[in-house]
Amino acid sequence: MSIEDIYSLYLSSSKICTDTRNISKNSLFFCLKGENYDGNIFAKKALELGASYVIIDDSKYFKDNSNYILVKNSVKTLQELAIFHRSKLKAKIIAITGSNGKTTSKELIYSVLSQKFKTFSTVGNLNNHIGVPLSILSLSTETEIGIIEMGANHLNEIKILCEIANPQIGYITNFGKAHLAGFGSEISIVRGKSELYNYLKLTNGLAFINGNDKKQLKLTQKNKKYIFGNSEKADLNIKPININSNKIVVRYNNFDFETNMIGSYNFSNVSVAVAFGLFFKIPKKIILKGLKRYNPNNNRSEWLRKGSNLILMDAYNANPSSMNASIDAFIENTEKNRILILGDMEELGKYSKSEHQKIANKLEKIDIEFVILVGEKFSKVEYGNDNFKKFNNSKEVSKFINNKKWNNKNFLLKGSRKNKLEKIKF
After folding, report:
1. CA–CA dist 81, 208 (Å, integer)
2. Rounded distance, CA 375 to CA 168, Å?
3. Would you say residue 223 has pLDDT above 60?
4. Closest residue by Cα to residue 61 from 34, 32, 81
């Protein structure tokens, strides 16, 4: 069956589905395979639950009826379907990648642009070789702007995602120490993320650049670009300020954009949202409204009150760059009674031991009441402070905290997803 024929089935279906737990009547079900799963075994069940067609890539699961479509590779077919659908869309596609802050930037930009345009943004963490095609296939012909988040842990991944999404505009938040195990080095991280710049260069697309980042300016010398930031080279001079508050405020042309966010690392996230709003000619007061209606959630820089304790929940994920930024923001916004609960940072490969030790060394120099380290990797760090304690998992931490009966404390929770620090009970 040709991709055009599959596209006709897609247009007449209720949605694309890859998980039988989310089946709806008349959906088009893709049986995807990975290292630890094989969706082909669920083909029959998908049809029983209401799917109109199933796309499989293993002939032993094929049944001789019109509801089964056998292809060479289900993942590749999903990607080709997304590319074909993208060719039919008139939407302006904005691609966002980077080591840290891409989800927050995406949400802020969406909060601003969706006030004026029919806007779609990546849902959850659908930012990989499967998530990006699913995101593109979620766009309708009426969508005016699509904001597509792109994640990667190896070289050539961003290149492939760009070929699927075909963005006209791209933004890289930063280059940090994320997925070092896959990329192999910080140099490779820069090369990998810069595949977005390379694609835009080839397609005459526009790169949004933080003018305060000299590395990004250097890498985009031959790109068509739109520069924002507190820089002489900026098209939009947006500078960070605070007004009687720890919350992030940025200023453009004597107009202050106030937010509900903390942490100096969020200045760039807020600034790029303002820059996109101004680029798309949204009035400053409307941009401000969009920024203020965004509240950090989903365990990302989220302030929570538990009894008399205040918790900065930033436990969605972690790498050395974001870990340091979270610690700095926490120290900036609390004066005393500080307790840090930090979980292992994953995917660091040969750099894991040294990067975890660097965090411990940093904490020994800061005025902190207590430090709780969680996980196998942090269990190997060395320190000389009596106020450090190690635990294997979140359950052990919960028990320790409840036995302590801490009150009126400020907690920071930061770690990779594997640690599940959000499950700690206070």
Report:
1. 28
2. 42
3. yes
4. 32
Summarised one tens digit per residue, pLDDT across range 381-418 is 999 888 999 999 999 999 999 888 888 999 999 999 89
Structure tokens at 56: 């499989």
**What is the rounded distance in angstroms from the CA atom of residue 348 to the CA atom of residue 94?**
29
In this structure, which amino acid lies at residue 288? Answer: L
Q: What is the separation of C-alpha 5 from the centre of its chain, rounded to a whole number of angstroms? A: 34
* CATH class of segment(s) 89-292: alpha beta
More confident position, 178 or 162? 162
Strand (E) or helix (H) holding 239: strand 239-241
Read off φ and ψ for residue 55, nearest 5 degrees: -110, 115
Answer whether CATH 3.90.190.20 is correct for domain 302-423: yes
Burial (Cβ within 10 Å: 0-12, 13-18, ≥19) of residue 90: exposed
CATH topology of domain 3-71: 3.40.1390
* Sign of the C-alpha dihedral computed for residues 191, 85, 128 and 394 taken in this order: positive
Instruction: Please state the rounded mean pLDDT for residues 302-307.
Output: 89
SS3 28: strand
**pLDDT beyond 80 at 108:** yes
List beta partners, residue 69. 55
Q: Residue 131 carries which side chain, given as an amino acid letter?
A: G
| Dist. CA 37–CA 398, nearest whole Å | 33
Is 89 in contact with 76 (CB distance < 8 Å)? no
Q: How far apart are CA 419 and CA 283, in angstroms?
A: 42
| Phi, psi of 201, rounded to the nearest 5 degrees | -65, -45
Q: Are 338 and 310 in contact (CB under 8 A)?
A: no
Quick one: angle between helices 74-86 and 3-12, nearest 10?
Answer: 80
What are the boundaries of each domain within the chain?
A: 3-71, 89-292, 302-423
Handedness of CA 237, 242, 248, 254 (dihedral sign): negative
Q: What residues does 310 pair with on adjacent strands?
A: 305, 410
Look up tokens 């993320």; give the residue.
Answer: 193
* Average pLDDT across the chain, whole number: 93
